[in-house]
Amino acid sequence: MREGYDGSGPGAITPDGCSVEVYARLPLYGEPDIIAAAVPEAARLLELGCGVGRMTGPLVERGFTVTAVDESAEMLERVRGARTVRSPIESLELGELFDAVTLTSFLVHAGDEGVRRGLLDTCRRHIGDDGCVIIQREPLDQRARLPYERVDPAGFTVRMSSEPAGDGVDLMRAEYVFPDTVWRQRFLSRALTREAFEAALAESGLRVDRYLTDDGTWVRAVPAS
To answer: Is the model's pLDDT at 141 over the cut of 90?
Structure first.
């Protein structure tokens, strides 16, 4: 378990506190469509933090060749249709280039700035000068809305809250309430203004090509030079 992270509930829990079973139950919210519209047709994709393959399968169905990476063996067991690699993202060294890399699930908000830099460095070293990185950020008003409760149309409830953990980092608490059971997770997360996000990209040799959604949550980044 990573320091500052933990989770509880039935089934396997990953090093960052995620429940494998929760991610197997979560629906899609249009993520594959956003990614597919921002990368070349039939591209070779490197999916970082793929989890159980919620997005992997739909991307493969759209004609992409996907290499799916996760540090959890239990997550990777659920992935279908793609080559899988078990590794922490920040230390991944595949020695090959892809047309596009995806970094979703708000991973760019890692509480540890060294980890965040490692994530973005991994993105950069796995694309060529004509490649791109698709990143999912928090909505800009996410922290201001905490605590909140959301009832998902799929039939479960999500509760989120936070408390300051020092040095600009928040300890986040998530609760997923399903009719048959409850899963809880704690993790460390750093809020990023648009300026701070773009500065973090620059540190890893990336820049914003364009924001893909009006709320700035999805971003297409490219090599800075």
So the answer is: no
pLDDT (tens digit per residue) in 41-82: 999 999 999 999 999 999 999 999 999 999 999 999 999 999
If phi over 0 gives left and psi between -120 and 50 gives alpha, with beta otherwise, what is residue 21?
Answer: alpha
Instruction: Give the E-state strand segments of the chain in sequence order.
Output: 6-8, 44-48, 65-70, 83-86, 98-103, 127-136, 148-151, 157-166, 169-177, 182-190, 206-211, 218-223
Strands of 206-211's sheet in order across: 83-86, 65-70, 44-48, 98-103, 127-136, 218-223, 206-211
Beta strand spans in 15-73 (E): 44-48, 65-70
Contact 67, 47 (CB under 8 A): yes
Report residue 127 as tokens.
């694309």
pTM: 0.96
